[in-house]
Fold these 3 entries.
Entry 1:
Amino acid sequence: MAETFDLPNFDSIDLPDNVSADDIAANRFTQAALERHKREGLVLAVRARWVALAIVAIMIPILNPSWDMLYYEFLMFCLAGVGWLQQRVGRVGRSGAELGVLALDIILMTFALVFPNPFAKDVGIPTAMIYQFENFQYFFIILALGTLSYSWRTILAVGNWTAASWLVSVGLVWWFGTTYDELTAAAEEAFGHAPIILDLFDPNSLEFDLRFQQIVVFLIVSGILALSIRRFNRFILGTASLERERENLSRYFSPNVVDALSQNDEPLKEIRSHDVAVIFVDIQGFTSFAAERSPEAVIGTLREFHEIMEQAVFAHGGTLDKFLGDGLMATFGTPLPAPDDVRRAYHCVRRMVVLAEKWNAARVDRGQVALGVSVGLHYGPVVVGDIGGARLEYAVIGNTVNVASRLEALTRPLGCRVAISEDVANRLPEEEIDDLQRVSGQTIRGLDETMTVLTLA
């Protein structure tokens, strides 16, 4: 089953200057893109966190093989659990729960790095010496993990919470920490002539200038990363816009045309002439049907019919050329011809017949009348290319198009659902057309000679 997400709070999303929140709210591709990247990033961040914590958990007993290190192993386990909790509450936009869990993460990390292990033996060292181990560098792991959430607000929150938590820890150690005056006296005796060196080697010194430097550097790095993530968010929005445009194209063109349009700047500008299979589909008697029903019922019926017909066209790699009121025109061999154009077009026609039967059966079950569907198929030379000025239209022009349209109209006097030309039949295996009936001597306007038509009742 496909995974579903709650829609994000678009009022809090950083948008490009030319995109409004209303535009984003109406764009399901942007919604899905932002939520998908956020979720994927959170999952990746949790996995990376667990790997990093596992490495640290292995490293701790190697550096200090003693039983009291189990205290830090427990803290690593708690940090892993907080990461899982972040994944559970994470969402696109502002989230109080997510910020709360992030604050808990930073506070827990600060507690683990600064405050002494209560189970360790008192070795008689000042509390301030904890800062000599340069444990602050572990906060960069959390900052790096935050980048995987693709949220610039998360990065700034990590920077601000870390700075605040670290400052508070320094204040608490300065106020409540254990100090040993005799160690300061010994340091003064040794380095009293050099105040800078004394400050570096005084075990009771908190080295406020270095603590301040750590915070400033961390805030600068978090700010730079936040700017990078913000630019990446705009890239996601741009990508989502391209996906939307591609989806809009796919409503009018088949995937092969969409690919041609998306991969080349002017793929359809060149005027070409080659053989194409052309299909015309129509609902029989639709004019009288529409005259007796409400506009809503008429449009609803057309939408259902067009939908199932275009499914058949796209499923066989054809191009939906245009909707024609209660019918449509489709081509096989545009924008570029393929060796199996005729076969795919014929299979598409057979699929249209099956889908029309199922559609009519569903209509009858709903108490509605069944509608006759007629199809014409011809194969021959056409001219393809763009026409128009500022507004371009991809056109397929030629007598082949006219013949296909008239074959569709011929189904009514012949009393059949499908009429295909002999030019199509001659390019198909005999076993695939053995259920068709040959009707010779048919006059088609636009042709000098009569033609044989193959019909499906």
Entry 2:
Amino acid sequence: MTTLMKILIAYDGSECADIALDDLLRAGLPSKAEAKVVSVAEQVVPFPATFGMVETDFVESLLPEFANLKEQTEFASSKLKVAFPEWKVMTVVGVGSPSSFIINQADEWKPDLVVVGSHGRSAIGRLFLGSVSLKLVHDSPCSVRIARRHAETESDRVKLLLAIDGSRDSEEAAREVVVRQWPIGSEVRLVNATWGYSPALSSSSLQPIAQWMAKEKARIGAMMGRVEEELRAAGFTVTSVVKEGDAKTVLLDEAEAWKADCIFIGSKGTSPIERLMVGSVSSAVATHAPCSVEIVRRPR
């Protein structure tokens, strides 16, 4: 029996949350899937710890907005059922820390993807990437899609920017693009930010570093070639870009200039630090991208 994709959608009734629902139509998602819409009322009174993640009549009486959240989740659910009539959609309403509640739901339900708007209702969220979104980028047990508004277009085709840095996580991001269901004529641009060759590396003492750099460039180039073949076989129009520079800057500039609909990027890069925590490149791209961003994380 085929296992259905599971998608957890964080929804707070904000404009950005509605944009996230609309963005699902351009995310290459399957016609059949399971979806869970989660809304959370921030804890505003000191409940005992046992209340933290549960819905109770007592909580509802203390938080009038709790009932409104139920209406919001039902609205989101009905919208999903119109857009994806074959999806099985359920709703959950809770109280507590929104990011903790959502991550707890993800740990328990084990979705393949968590979807969230780029900003929430809070004052801080209106100034920069919402704290909930950023928390999910770092701590979600699965892939995260941060949705942003798309430019108006009459075409169903999408333009996907795929970051390739030679890591296993970037390969996983490429694999995720290949297995999704995209409109005919969609495009993928592979982007690799590489380093320049310094004349100082010509000295004999630094030759091992220069040789390692050359091998890494060749390895990443070979990976890009393999990914390009797989994408073309899947029906995409594919272009590749290799530029010297800081990875964050290269990816963001390319997404802006190419008018990408979404950036797909692995959650971790190739540096020792990035193997220990979510990659700084992923975090920066999620925060500053001009389009939606999907951070692909291999299941724990």
Entry 3:
Amino acid sequence: MATSGSKVVVVVPNWNGEDRLKTCLDSLLAQSLKTHIIVVDNASTDGSRDLLKKYPDIEVIKHSVNKGYAGGVNAGFKRALEMSATYVAAFNNDAVADKDWLKNLVSYHDAHSKVGIAASKVIDEKGKHIDSTGDQYTVWGLPYPRGRGESEIDKYDSETEIFGASGAASLYRASMLEEIGLLDEDFFAYYEDVDLSFRAQLAGYKVIYVPESEVHHSIGATSQKIKGFTTYQTMKNLQLLMYKNVPRKHMYKVCWRFTLASSLFLLRAISRGQGWPAIKGDLKGSYLLLKKHSARKQIQGSRKVSDEYIWSVMTHDLPPNAKALRSLRAKWWKVTGKKAK
């Protein structure tokens, strides 16, 4: 059980999520471990704000502009830190939590002081496939959700250390956030959760997957509302993620692989009529790299783990769904007769 001294806050970012928000909030209000809930509304133009008026016990922070997932969650995180919370969770507005979701995460945190982030088992809304059992970060500079799309729900039923935690439903130690900082708002949406997990790893915190903590998630319910959004954010954010966090000793090994991967992604985007969002995202990311020099210097200068440790917790393979890259790699191995190290 969670200790009575643990003050817990759950932050739900929302942008035009009226169709999903009620089910989300009802599941949080029904938690076996009671919590303070904050909804950060990113200038919704649907009926979200009218819906929130029906929940007087839920704190609402209203933004006049859409600050994205990162900006929305950060507003709630800051409020939680002002309240001297022990733990603060990020929870998607298109997710639904089992009644013991929060209790199981808090109980694990309370029993393991070196854990900075506890991740949930996230399943699709129909309960037939896995969305995420934690995030992995590969030596190709490509993160991916562990187990996504797999139908063997019980395959990931063991507590284990993972690289990162999905922002869809994870619990963060407040003292860790005060040390390493909050989400990077330049990411806006996508991979800001991996960036935060990477910084936690560099600072010596553990990220743990807690399978008893279960959530159902409607994958991509928000991003699908904007054409080209995912492509733009992916091309922009992946390079920021790599530049800020990968130690210098390993940067070359990751960078050449990433350059190949991003080039293929760009070509694929063009073939699908998403060329302009991809090009804009790549250019914006390149521009932001200049801004991230001081952030990289601070992150790498204050890290508490070795180069070898970071290399050991990265995945030395391509993401499972990187079919084009896997095919290209197989041809390379066939021609050269050896695998790349």
